Amino acid sequence: MKVNFGLTAKDYSKYRAGYPNELYERLKNYGVGIKGQSILDIGTGTGYLARTFAKQGARVTGVDISDELIEEAKKLDEKVHVHIRYLNARAEHLPFSSSEFDVVSAGQCWHWFQGDQVLKEVNRVLHAHGKLIIVHLDWIPLDSNIVSKTEELILSYNPKWKGAGGTGVYPDWLTQVAIGGFTDIETFTFDLHFKYSQEAWRGRIRASAGVGASLPHERIAAFDHQLKELLQENYPNIIEIPHRVFCLVCESN
Predict the structure, then answer these.
(1) Domain spans of the chain?
(2) Tell me, which fold does domain 5-139+166-193+243-251 have in CATH?
(3) pLDDT per position as a tens digit, 15-61
(4) Which of 1, 10, 58, 59 could pair covalently with 53 via S-S, beta carbons 3.0-4.6 A apart?
(5) What is the 8-class DSSP label of residue 112?
(6) d(CA 180, CA 34)
(7) How far apart are CA 126 and CA 40, in angstroms?
(8) Cα(106)–Cα(49) distance, rounded to whole angstroms?
């Protein structure tokens, strides 16, 4: 399935939920997100992970392959008066010197990468004993909740979509980073609920890989109309959506 998040940059910027404050507080216990720290955020998208690091006083660089997402990131930075340096680059080929960063972060993107190549590049650009963090914030389908119903609808329009039925936990990545030479590997998870209006949930789903980033315009419109009807007939205007945060923290050699 060909995916281009640049096609859904506006919805991506407006409707994707940011990471909760608890994530950043926990990361401080690992020495991540400290004032003056040099952080590279790969697959930065619209800068949701990078922006809070910058607010905390870190010197942040974000890279992404989508110019559209980077432009949205810059607009969001301006609104909160932070500065992040952005570059269009692939995580597999980082345009930086060796040992340039204290931390490399990757939010909502690791599954899109060629992991072995990215780990080589991350190890190269990190200082000795620098930190790599991989973060995911996923909606969780439970029984017949609105998430599972929405996933069923996505699959009816896009059978090639592989994102349904997730648990929000990624144990295979622990083995991957260990093979890549990283040590002191730890993970943590926690659950929370986000409140969405019906309009916001529709926007969030349009911004997903299975809809706005991969379907043609007419199919997106038809899907959105059907989701709107499903919501209006069966759910209140404000919906609570269960989510899970997963974070892997490890150290370069």
Answers:
(1) 5-139+166-193+243-251
(2) Rossmann fold (3.40.50)
(3) 888 899 999 999 999 999 999 999 999 999 999 999 999 999 999 99
(4) 58
(5) G
(6) 26
(7) 9
(8) 8
